[in-house]
Write a structure and sequence with these properties.
Elements: H1 2-13, H2 15-20, E1 30-36, E2 41-48, E3 56-62, H3 74-83, E4 86-90, H4 105-121, E5 124-134, H5 136-147, E6 154-158, H6 164-171, H7 176-185, H8 193-201, E7 216-221, H9 233-242, H10 251-260, E8 281-287, E9 290-295, H11 303-311, H12 332-338
Parallel strand pairs: 3-4, 3-5, 5-6, 6-7, 7-9
Antiparallel strand pairs: 1-2, 2-4, 8-9
Helix pairs in contact: 3-12, 4-5
């Protein structure tokens, strides 16, 4: 009840902003605050509620490493407007350069509390709660897949950071992202034992084995790590954590793949997926509830592929990998023009 009261108060306060719209977001997306059970504080988020009756899906979309809840990522919301989904874009303590952010306990509880707020306030289908993110948002998505696997019908993570300590090594000490890690974790993980422990605590690698019953789709561009900040090896190693033993990718193959930017011949197979457009998959592996796709691209998300896949997933049901009747994502441009 308290969450609903808070939401109604925020709507009343934000009426002028609602009328004008939020820059970079479709009309109908509004700013709210909800109660985080981490520390009983009010946390901000962007929210969209469809004007339809009956239980509908909820998409939880997570901002990137240096972003916050207002970061323009309109494709997520456009999808929800067109398809009649609920949508929430939480802050989860903002950019990943403070101890309160970067996979902290506060972050985990903030995201879980955002879902609880929606469930208590609206008619959400509990079997169709989805999570998506790219880059730092994918780090948080992978973390939540392992920390709270009970929530999600599907998790779509793009170019995610699997191991924070390893990423620090990948980047080198002088990189701004490695300096962000040091600021959040309390020092240089190579020389500070407590900082190294914090990297472990804040890494999806520590928890992802718990996500073996979650429908999980991992994606990364083959150029990422060279023309992007997160080597695609993180997505391959995340796959190995969840995959069955006989489906795992050998570490030597991962290293060769990254070095040559070309999948070893024994890993290749025919991969046709029109949702990826010109960014065709160059490697795809499936094991139980997890799939990894390395595509011809960089540090990015392909929204049509991510959202069409999520739309097919149901909590407690086997994953659906083949999308027989995808939604035409280009049509979403018309949603913004029409102001729906």
């Amino acid at each position: 009840m308290i969450e609903k009261i808070i939401f109604m108060m925020m709507v009343a306060i934000s009426t002028p902003a609602l009328a004008a719209g939020i820059k970079g977001w479709p009309v109908g997306v509004c700013e709210i605050q909800y109660l985080s059970h981490a520390d009983q504080t009010l946390q901000p988020a962007l929210f969209y509620a469809p004007k339809v009756e009956g239980k509908k899906p909820l998409l939880v979309a997570l901002h990137t490493w240096s972003g916050n809840y207002r970061q323009p990522e309109p494709d997520y919301a456009r999808w929800c407007v067109q398809n009649g989904w609920f949508f929430i874009h939480p802050h989860f303590r903002g950019p990943n350069w403070t101890p309160q952010a970067l996979g902290s306990e506060l972050v985990v509880q903030d995201i879980a509390s955002a879902v609880q707020f929606a469930l208590k306030t609206y008619e959400i289908d509990p079997d169709r709660i989805y999570l998506a993110g790219v880059s730092g948002g994918a780090h948080a998505a992978l973390l939540m897949a392992g920390r709270r696997p009970d929530i999600w019908a599907g998790v779509s993570a793009w170019c995610g950071i699997y191991d924070v300590g390893q990423w620090w090594k990948d980047l080198g000490a002088k990189n701004r992202y490695s300096q962000n890690i040091e600021a959040a974790c309390g020092g240089c993980p190579a020389t500070n034992g407590k900082a190294a422990e914090e990297c472990v605590k804040r890494s999806p690698a520590t928890y992802l084995a718990n996500a073996r019953a979650v429908n999980l789709d991992l994606n990364a561009g083959v150029k990422d790590g060279r023309f992007g900040s997160v080597p695609f090896t993180h997505s391959l190693r995340a796959f190995n954590m969840v995959a069955q033993e006989n489906d795992k990718i050998d570490e030597s193959d991962i290293e060769q793949f990254y070095k040559e930017m070309k999948a070893p011949p024994r890993l290749l197979g025919e991969v046709l997926d029109p949702l990826y457009g010109r960014q065709t998959p160059v490697l795809r592996k499936i094991s139980r509830n997890v799939r990894v796709t390395i595509f011809n691209g960089g540090h990015e998300i392909i929204p049509a592929a991510a959202l069409n896949w999520l739309a097919q997933q149901r909590k407690g049901s086997p994953p659906v990998w083949e999308i027989k009747s995808p939604v035409n994502f280009k049509a979403l441009e018309e949603v913004t023009k029409s102001g729906l």
